[in-house]
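Q: I'm writing up a methods section and want to include an example of the input and output format. Could you take the sequence below and give the corresponding predicted structure tokens, formatted cleanly so I can copy it straight into the document?
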Amino acid sequence: MKKTLTGLFFWMTCTMPSMGQGQFNCPAESPVRRDDSALYQIVAGPHQIRLVDEGALAMQLRLDMIERAQCFILLEYIIYYTDEAGRMVAQALIAKKRKSPHVRIRLLLDSPPPVWVMLDDYHVSELIKNGIEVRYYNPGWNLRNVTHRNHRKLFMTEQEAITGGRNIGNHYFDLSDAFNFDDRELWIKGPGLGALAEVFEMYWQSNRVKIPRWPLPPNPHTLSREPLIPDSTDETGLFWPPTDAGMTDKSRFLALQAVYAEKKKYAHHFITPDERDRYLRSRILEIATLQNALQPVFVVDTLSFISDHPDFHHPNANVTGLAAYPFMRTARDSVWLENGYFIPQKAEKRMIREWMKQGVKVRLLTNSRASTNEFAPNTLTQWRAKELGRDGMGVWLYYGKIPTNQLPDSTFSQHAVWTTHAKTILVDNRDVWIGTMNFDPRSVRRLNAEMAIIVHNNPIFAQHVSKHLYERLTQSQPMNMSGPDARERLRSAKQWFKVLFLHFGVAVAESQF
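A: Here is the clean output for your methods example:
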């Protein structure tokens, strides 16, 4: 751990790789720091910060940051969907690159096995063709490493940054008519940007990061079991042997060629604005203008910037999880937790009970069964919360719904599910932790790479965060400690199997730490 007292000027001139030249006075190239001190930096201010809870405002801030950038734009996410939110960000990045070719744009994507409808090599190739650099974190199916994911979330330029719970997708920006996240982020401006950029560069240069593969069209010569010769009369331009094997190979080639063409077409459409995109951008600007007035900018002094090491096998890979509980241990009066995933292990439950014995009020806001579609982790969350609740911890279950007049699209369903996705710790109404870490073994034990920012000793900002937390409490209910909550019971053997499987995984994790 290291206390960093360097100012923004020193960082702008010394610590970032070259991302622009000439009249923009962009940072000069400097080698990446290889020691662990970059992962926990305490940076003196002044800093400007603001809370970003509302989805439309969060999207508009990103679009405005892209427009204001003069040297570089850095993005780092575990999830980047190909929906309307993903389209808006990608199209804005490409427009910026075309308008300002000197601005360097880097996108670092976690690359798990294909489970979500996310950016694939076809979408990424369109971004690369338009001058955007893209790299993948830990791609592939290696069974030893596949569970290690990059859960960090960062959107930054040389002037400002946003980090917190949001990925890039409709669910994170109030754009889904079925399921949305009530999230929380921190916007930052000041000398601490150097700490964020420095760790991003560590990840970007890490040996866990790979350059994407360029998708190539199917090669008929490798698909055919017999040699092919040119034939201008055939639709493929080749003569295929008139045998069963030859016709089978040709059909396979044509099918793969059609799939390739369709994926290329869809990827190109992804970066091409249409009427739907323009409508949503105008609505987001309209709603964000109203929300913007509700989120003042605070001037604060010291911030701590915490991140896990990019190499999950590094001896000091886990930094964020190890920092969270000492941070909470500083409490003398109260600890407020808002997190949708609360699965503390034995040692952590013991610590929480010790705090409560010392008179510290520990309170948790998490999701009800009605507000999440992740019933397996939510069931474990409720079991653990109820266990500690019976020992004195206050527990509230979120049943939130947002007013439809705040939705970017007025045609959206009034029955969408809203769930808390914030990862917030509030200590003594004085210190605030906002980050990407869930309270489960994946995050705390460094299966996921995480990051966090601590706002130190600022009761005014802490009170602002508390106000937002209590607003969500008005859409919550205290947990029933004597019996199951409404809609808490699992409804099928399949659900029970998934819960027990997850419970077994948590038990294995507990036995290893």
